Amino acid sequence: MKETERLYASISNIDDRFIEEAQAGKIRKAPVWRKWAGLAACLVIAVFGVVSVDRPTVSDERNAAVLPPSRIGAFGIEASLGNQYTFESALSEADVVARIEVGNWLAEDTDLYKTYYEATVLQCFKGSIPETFTLLQDGCSAATMKTYPLFTSGNEILVFLKKASVTTYESPYWIIGSYTTLLDVFYDENGNRYYADRYGILGKSIGIDSNYARENPVSSEVLAIAEAHDPIVSEMYYSYPYIFSEADMITLIEKSKKTITVINLSQGSSGEFAGDMHRPEGFHENIGSALALEMSITDDDEYEYSVLIRIPEGSTLEQALNCANENLDMAINIDDAVPVNVLGSFDAAGEYYCPLTSEQIIALAESGTKCLYIGSGQGEYKDMNWNTRDGINAYCELNGDMYVFAGDGVEAHPDIFVEE
Which pTM does this prediction carry? Predict the structure, then answer.
């Protein structure tokens, strides 16, 4: 097996060889005496009743901890992950989103290129996870991805996690998106917490206006403290193009957790559906056929349609709405846009539910944003026809633009035929 292929062996589908090697002692593990050295030192202090103890230095803390044999592998690997997550898609797919502290190095697998650590949950934003768990990282002392060194004790990071199938250690979790989704956690001199994207991959999809990477006093102070705490920060020459405050991050996470679930009825088909064949003329191509049909039979200009908006690639929700709002008297409120969880779709990144008027839909469509109708999923198929408003509305509610709200009795079904 090629080296790069072995690196990407799925952590959630580790083969039996992994377990056999672990049982045979082929996985390199931390020496037992070092693992308990810190605890032994604490016991000595307790026995002799030391009244005053100076705060340990970073160097002292590292010496007491079990560290990886090397943070940079013997050789580097250029990595290109197939699925590049946005902040919303990572939050949606992860079982757990948490701010954690990396603890002792436990072991490494030089065949699968994985490293195992003790880790502690400092703050959990999504899901349920034990306070202490096993963290898996891509890479080991044999090989690491370029500019993605191994963690070390004391590293504080925000991670998007999934439960792993490894049985060697308790509560194992791996990081979805590997290096592309983690955010380093830093502090300024006053103890204010910041979340920093070392690569700028995840940060570009985070919809926060205040990017402290652009504010020199703050960014310089935060990075200086980060380098003092972990020298490898300066060795890697990270640019940290995105630095966000804790308040802004928590607000975004809490808002993003409020999602609406819809069903994709297309079953992966990209062909023409019945609504496309009866699409009314004069509507922008970015407006879905069912949405155009609904707009054509509704006389109320202030009526708000249930719309799934699809943000253009390379843009953010805020940018798309700002562009549309330039041409609107009644601006679209970004707080009205809710991320969607799409059942039956491989990728819902950049898709939101938003109630919109016809004027707002047109402005969004003309500015490059796709607008699709989300049907209620309710109604009777026998009521669908193209000759009456009620018949057209019945079609739109049952099918939408191949999206309907998830609910009891709503099933994914192909849109094949509607009687004339």
Answer: 0.56
